[in-house]
Design brief:
Rossmann fold, globular, eight-stranded mixed sheet, alpha/beta
Length: about 250
């Protein structure tokens, strides 16, 4: 279907967050979706995911969560081969997109969605990849009934000893939650999966946790571990979740 794409500078508490906006042509109204990026940085591979979500009938916001620091996204893929760039990413860049910071950003994104006539007034959906997968689950707990569906793909740190581990917010989640982990992923190993499963079950959260036969980072097409079969499963599960939990806009 015809697609609208704009890039806005959304004013947040900490500055101006460049945000890609995708939605089908026409007035909608469409369900709102926020997509949290991975740690490699904003690039076409992520924009393509956001666009495909929108093409299924959603108003999608894709914010550049690294706006607080100087970061050249063209160096993002080099973290796989350059230890100095990887260290900088892990110690300086990614911490700027902490859960606390991104939740403040998300509050502003909620306000943007609420002000758009093309967006319906129902609870929204969130999804994320890698770093963004953790943020999506965290947001489900932080915002409670304002989020109806949350999906995490190859996310890490979902159930750790950290004070801000997303699993600790399970009692506040009303969203339906879907988590797809990767194999051989020390950032979301079997122990974390079991801890997250226990937390969500005890909190009576409607959820599903799966492990795909793919490596961490399997969805974006430009990663060294991109996996077509796992990506296809990702699309199947993500769009089914959103179709079930979000009000679908009118056909165009």
């Amino acid at each position: 279907m015809p697609m609208s794409h704009t890039e806005l500078q959304i004013e947040t508490a900490d500055g101006h967050c460049p945000t890609h906006v995708y939605h089908p042509a026409g007035s909608g109204p469409w369900p709102g979706v926020i997509m949290y990026m991975d740690g490699i940085g904003m690039r076409p591979a992520l924009m393509e995911i956001a666009e495909r979500i929108a093409n299924s009938g959603y108003y999608v916001l894709l914010p550049n969560l690294f706006y607080r620091v100087d970061f050249d996204a063209s160096n993002g893929m080099k973290v796989f081969t350059d230890p100095d760039l990887r260290k900088d990413l892990m110690t300086r860049v990614m911490p700027s997109a902490s859960a606390a910071n991104v939740m403040r950003d998300t509050e502003t994104l909620f306000a943007h969605l609420a002000a758009q006539r093309e967006v319906n007034d129902a609870p929204i959906g969130v999804t994320g990849y890698c770093m963004g997968g953790r943020l999506a689950v965290y947001a489900a707990g932080h915002f409670g009934d304002r989020i109806a569906a949350a999906a995490s793909y190859h996310g890490g740190g979902l159930a750790t000893d950290a004070p801000d581990s997303p699993h600790r917010l399970a009692p506040h989640m009303t969203a339906r939650v879907y988590v797809a982990g990767a194999i051989k992923d020390p950032n979301f190993d079997d122990a974390q999966k079991a801890r997250l499963e226990q937390a969500l079950t005890e909190a009576e959260v409607d959820h599903r946790i799966e492990t795909y036969n793919a490596m961490h980072g399997f969805v974006p097409r430009d990663t060294p571990v991109h996996d077509e079969a796992a990506t296809a499963r990702h699309w199947e599960t993500l769009l089914a979740l959103f179709a079930a939990e979000l009000k679908v806009g009118p056909p165009q």
